[in-house]
């Protein structure tokens, strides 16, 4: 009795693989309103942050330095652009905490900045 091994022809396998829709990577963060963002750079320099803010970017402020676990205080792109006209953010150091700004982008191309305590930016962050 011949053993029958059911196999899928190679051409068909290739077709199934290439026609399968790519699984989108999960978003790194959901901002206020539910929009998803992907992390571009975890630690951009203050001048970069200023340039991006002037072009238009919302901002989330991690006011306690926990990394956003307890939530962000949100600022509109208009408010952030206004702060950016006064200068670049100032990344500070306080005990073991170091100020940091991360850059994220939505699939639609909108930028989002996340500022982590201790950081100052005009009258925006404290
Ligand atoms: Zn926190």
Write the layout of secondary structure elements.
Blueprint (H helix, E strand, L loop, with lengths): L9 H10 L9 E2 L5 E6 L4 H10 L1 E6 L10 E3 L1 H9 L4 E2 L1 E2 L2 E2 L1 E6 L5 E6 L2 E2 L6
Parallel strand pairs: 3-9
Antiparallel strand pairs: 1-2, 2-8, 3-4, 5-10, 6-7, 8-9
The structure holds zinc ion (ZN).
Zinc ion binds next to loops.
How many angstroms separate the termini?
81 Å
Percent of residues in helices comes to: 10-25%
Strand content: 25-35%
Strand order of the largest sheet: 1-2-8-9-3-4
Note the main sheet. 6 strands, mixed
| Main structural class | alpha+beta
What is the radius of gyration computed over CA atoms, rounded to a whole number of angstroms? 22 Å
**Would you report the number of β strands?**
10
Instruction: Compute the number of helices.
Output: 3
- The run of helices and strands is HEEHEEHEEEEEE
Provide mean pLDDT, rounded: 89
Specify the overall morphology. Answer: elongated
Bound molecules: zinc ion
Unreliable stretches: none
Keywords:
126 residues; alpha+beta; six-stranded mixed β-sheet; two-stranded antiparallel sheet; 3 helices; 10 strands; 29% strand; binds zinc ion
Structure description:
The chain is of the alpha+beta class and 126 residues long. It has a domain at 40-126. It is built from 3 helices and 10 strands, in the order H-E-E-H-E-E-H-E-E-E-E-E-E. The protein has helices at 10-19, 46-55, 77-85; strands at residues 29-30, 36-41, 57-62, 73-75, 90-91, 93-94, 97-98, 100-105, 111-116, 119-120. The strands form 3 sheets. It has a 6-stranded mixed sheet, covered by helices on one side. A two-stranded antiparallel ribbon has the order 5-10. It has a two-stranded antiparallel ribbon with strand order 6-7. A hairpin with a 2-residue loop joins strand 6 (93-94) and strand 7 (97-98). Helix 2 packs across helix 3. The longest helix is centred in the first third of the chain and has 10 residues, at 10-19. It is elongated, with a radius of gyration of 22 Å. The termini are far apart. The model has no long low-confidence stretch (mean pLDDT 89). The site of zinc ion has 5 residues, from loops.
């Amino acid at each position: 009795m011949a053993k029958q091994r059911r196999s899928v022809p190679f051409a068909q396998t290739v077709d199934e693989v290439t026609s399968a829709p790519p699984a989108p990577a999960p978003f790194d963060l959901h901002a206020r309103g539910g929009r998803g963002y992907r992390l571009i750079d975890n630690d951009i320099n203050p001048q970069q942050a200023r340039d991006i803010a002037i072009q238009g970017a919302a901002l989330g402020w991690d006011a306690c330095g926990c990394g956003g676990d307890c939530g962000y205080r949100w600022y509109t792109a208009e408010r952030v652009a206004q702060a950016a006209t006064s200068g670049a953010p100032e990344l500070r150091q306080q005990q073991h905490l170091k100020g940091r700004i991360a850059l994220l982008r939505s699939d639609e191309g909108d930028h989002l900045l996340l500022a982590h305590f201790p950081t100052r930016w005009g009258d925006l962050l404290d």
